[in-house]
Amino acid sequence: MKDSFEGRIDEVEIGIAEARELVARAFAATGFTADEAAIITDQIIECELRGVPNAGLSRALTLVDVARRCPPHAPITVTRETSVSALVEGGGHCGYLVAHRAVELGIEKALAHGIAVISARDTAYTGMYVHYLESAARAGLVGMAAGNSGARVAPYGATQARMGTNPIAFAFPTDSDPVIFDTGTSSVVLSELHLARRLGLEIGEGLAFDADGIPTRDPAAALAGAITVWGGYRGSGLSVAVQLLGILAGGDVQPTDESGSGFLFVAIRPDLFGEPGEFERRALEFADYARSAEPVPGGAPVRLPFDRSAQTRRELVVAGRFPASARVVAALRELAGEGSVSPRS
Fold it and tell me: For the segment 307-343, what is each residue's pLDDT rounded down to a tens digit?
């Protein structure tokens, strides 16, 4: 995130338990049930503990705003179900809740039958896929997730948005920590733009265009324009593929930020292709081999995806607290304590 922002963030330290209670109260004040608030809060706090604050407390403020403007219109239901697949109808609910249900169902089916493919639609704002895929990996499953979202990203060589930030993620269990790769296909993720705007910071060069197609460092102008794609034409091609996977899952061809996103989750039990425990052992063998590569002169030891966030979480859990934007914490305190909140329907 630091590579995307320029400016100073005034920070305070907040206890993990205090932050969890504060976020849960903010969601409860917005009309979420206690169970719903707990599910969303769990991911918000996990993002902070993994060192990804743009998807943490700041994202809670965004979700509250979306919930007030776009309340759900139907319950979350499961349709088109087989022993190894299902379609989760989101009913306009927050994606954190819809994806939680989809992944929970997928893990259950994959453990029982070896494989599962679950799609979810009529939702938005699903959060960080690593949160869901860690659950799959801890259950001993290989996982993959992908999803589309509202048009925010310009295809390679363009200045107008046609694709979402379109995350894709993979998880692999090992005999130690899992290997989890979770990436968006935009040069900066939407939550970073919202956080930069909220904190009055500029974004880096070459990350976005304004509504007139002019390069901009103003996050508000970027939100009104388009984000550049990550990885040049290769990243653009990957983003197109993820957009189509979201459509396969039931997402709209042109979803908005608040509705119409599709989410696809695949889970595989490794012992379909070998003896129980064999894949986990061999995956760790490869992970250790990759980490053993000689770093560039003066460089840090090689890390694999999820290494940094797992270590950061361990350190912050021991500390019992984490740094957070003072402005964001103040906004959450005001929200959690206000009495005239317009709840969602």
Answer: 999 999 999 999 999 999 999 999 999 999 843 333 4
User: At 114, is the secondary structure helix, strand, or coil?
Assistant: coil
Q: Where do we find the tokens 């930030």?
A: 165
Q: 142-147 and 168-172: which strand pairing?
A: antiparallel
Domain residues for the domain of 63 are 1-69+306-345
Q: What is the pTM of this model?
A: 0.93
Q: Does residue 258 belong to any structural domain of this protein?
A: no
Residue 81 lies in a domain: no
Count structural domains, the chain: 1
CA dist 238 and 185 (Å) reads 7
- pLDDT tens string 257-279: 999 999 999 999 999 999 999 99
Q: b/e string for 119-131 if b means 16 or more Cβ within 10 A?
A: bbbbbbbbbbbbb
The answer to whether residue 215 sits within a structural domain is no
Could you give the CA distance from residue 48 to residue 58 in angstroms, rounded to a whole number? Answer: 10
Asked if 162 and 289 touch (Cβ cutoff 8 Å), the reply is no
CATH of the domain at 331: 1.10.1530.10
Structure tokens at 315: 């350190």
Residue 253 covered by a domain: no
Q: Which long-range CB contacts under 8 A does 79-82 form with residues at least 24 apart?
A: none
Report which secondary-structure segment, H or E, holds 121.
strand 115-123
